[in-house]
Amino acid sequence: MSEHYTLHVNGVERAVQDAWVGENLLYVLRERLGLMAAKGACEQGECGSCSVLVGGNLVCSCLVLAASAVGEPIVTVEGLAPPGAPSDVQQAFVDCGAVQCGFCTPGLIIAAHDLLDRTPEPTEMQIREELSGNVCRCTGYGRIIEAVQQVAVARRTADAGAAS
Ligand code: FES
Ligand code: FES
Fold first, then answer.
1. Separation of 106 CA from ligand 1 center, angstroms?
2. Across-strand partners of 3?
3. Using an 8 Å Cβ cutoff, are 15 and 4 in contact?
4. What is the pTM (predicted TM-score) of this model?
5. Are 139 and 94 in contact (CB under 8 A)?
6. Which residues pair with 73 in a beta bridge?
7. How far is the CA of 62 from the centre of ligand 1 (A)?
8. Which atom of ligand 2 is nearest to the CA of 138?
9. How many C-beta neighbours within 10 Å does residue 158 have?
10. What is the set of domains in the chain, with CATH numbers?
11. Which residues line ligand 2 (CB under 6 A)?
């Protein structure tokens, strides 16, 4: 039996037509809505490459039924910044050389935004813990940690400038 429902993705209502109710959010984002940032690797909640925000919570979209996200705001990497302009975290990943093959990068970018929104001044240990659900086979994580720290400092400096 096919289902029709609407998802609220990156601030836009997106219709999903003729879907199977058991489809996961990762599949629907990529194959039905054409949002290719979230990646499927393990498809069992182990690697974080499919991370997105649903209702403000960081989730593995491979483990979420798409139909269960109706009514919740969904944010993918495509919705973090205006088209054509990187978010501060995306720019920092580039500046710090934190992207190699890039397969893990969208998940890490979403996770880093979530971390910095909740914990604006994270310690290195907090960054390592919070990003531990996102597996990267290439970088060794050092430059990823550095990118997150760089954004934390830049945001703090900007806040201080705005307050003075
Ligand atoms: S593909 Fe979802 S956690 Fe790995
Ligand atoms: S950059 Fe290749 S898996 Fe992270």
1. 12
2. 19
3. yes
4. 0.95
5. no
6. 8
7. 6
8. 2
9. 11
10. 2-77 (3.10.20.30), 88-163 (1.10.150.120)
11. 99-104, 136-139
* Rounded-to-5 percentages of helix, strand, coil across the chain: 40, 20, 40
- Condensed to tens digits (0 to 9), the pLDDT of residues 97-134 reads 999 999 999 999 999 999 999 999 999 999 999 999 99
Residue 33 CA to residue 47 CA, distance in Å, equals 22
Amino acid sitting at position 157: T
**Atom 2, ligand 2: which residue's CA is nearest?**
101
Pocket test for ligand 2, best of 139, 143, 145 (most atoms within 8 A of CB): 139
- Token pair listed for 131: 């990003």
Beta-bridge partner residues of 74: 9, 54
- The pLDDT of residue 163: 82
Q: How far is the CA of 1 from the centre of ligand 1 (A)?
A: 27
Question: Rounded mean pLDDT of the chain?
Answer: 96
Ligand 2 centroid to residue 51 C-alpha, Å: 14
